[in-house]
Design a protein that fits this description.
By secondary structure, the chain is α/β, with parallel strands linked by helices. Helix content is 36%, strand content 20%. The protein has two domains: 119 residues, HAD superfamily/HAD-like (Rossmann fold); 111 residues, 3-Layer(aba) Sandwich (Rossmann fold). The chain is built from eleven helices and 15 strands. Strand 2 and strand 3 form a beta hairpin. The radius of gyration is 19 Å and the shape is elongated. 48% of the residues are buried.
């Protein structure tokens, strides 16, 4: 597998690629700055649904990486873009997620009710809802409760589409892994008997949303990620090219064993090698 001779769009994963914890990966700020100087389109794609795009602008800015909110794509903002282009009839949503998710959905013009609030206002477990919803949108909610699941189940039973911003089984924290949005999604899928529509990686919808919004074909885009099971698989399913970097979850030993959907077009030890790969391909 090889990279094409010309690329217009570079899509970065964040954790393990651009930064680790509160520290930037060595060389990442310089790589992003170089791409901006060359006039390349740059996007940062994360499955995290809890933080707004503005929150990531501030976080990366503190690391010396200057970006705009339009360059950040969270699984929530990708869900919004997907709905705008492919399901514009969805206007009223019941959401399971954090405040950042509520803000992103509301700023897109959707009418948003949080399942935890509806439950607290007196909707009974399994009982009818006072309002109908076009979709139930599920992200990670650290306060998730049984009552919220019951409200969401009732909405799906009444005809709402079940949409998952992402289906990550686990979520990394400084003290280890905790259950991710996928654990909540799996519970709702079991309770409703409905297979959810998943937007985030490794589903291709997030990358497709980025391509559509940027007006770039998949063959002109490359995804730079550290996780072959999420970044590489999702990118390949969307038709994008891939570079696997060894600054996060993958090491050289693992990279040498990859095949099929998990095999990238190229492997780079870090940002300097990524730049060497991109330099002849970014006009």
């Amino acid at each position: 597998m090889t990279l094409p001779s010309s690329l217009r769009l570079v899509i970065f994963d964040l954790d393990g690629v651009v930064y680790r914890g509160a520290q930037p990966v060595e060389g990442a700020p310089e790589l992003v700055s170089w791409l901006h100087e060359r006039g390349a389109l740059v996007r940062f794609a994360t499955n995290n649904s809890m933080v707004t795009r503005g929150g990531y602008v501030e976080r990366l800015g503190a690391m010396g990486i200057s970006i705009t909110s339009e360059e950040v794509v969270t699984s929530t903002s990708a869900t919004v873009e997907h709905l705008r282009r492919h399901a514009p009839e969805i206007r009223s949503v019941l959401a399971i997620g954090a405040d950042g998710m509520r803000e992103e959905l509301g700023s897109a013009g959707l009418r948003v009710a949080m399942a935890r609030d509806v439950a607290a206002e007196g909707a009974h477990e399994g009982g009818p809802l006072d309002a109908g919803y076009d979709a139930v949108i599920v992200g990670l909610d650290p306060t998730f409760a049984y009552s919220a699941m019951a409200v969401a189940m009732s909405a799906v039973a009444a005809g709402a589409r079940l949409i998952a911003t992402n289906a990550d089984a686990r979520y990394p924290t400084p003290v280890g892994f905790v259950p991710g949005a996928g654990a909540i999604v799996a519970a709702l899928a079991t309770a409703t008997g409905v297979t959810p529509e998943v937007i985030g990686k490794p589903a291709p919808a997030m990358f497709t949303a980025i391509l559509e919004a940027a007006g770039v074909s998949a063959d002109e885009a490359v995804v730079i990620g550290d996780n072959p099971d999420a970044d590489v698989v999702g990118a390949r399913r969307a038709g994008c090219h891939t570079i696997l970097v060894l600054t996060g979850v993958a090491d050289a030993e693992l990279a040498g064993t990859l095949s099929g959907e998990r095999e990238p077009d190229a492997v780079a030890a870090g940002p300097d090698e990524v730049r060497a790969l991109l330099e002849p391909r970014i006009s």
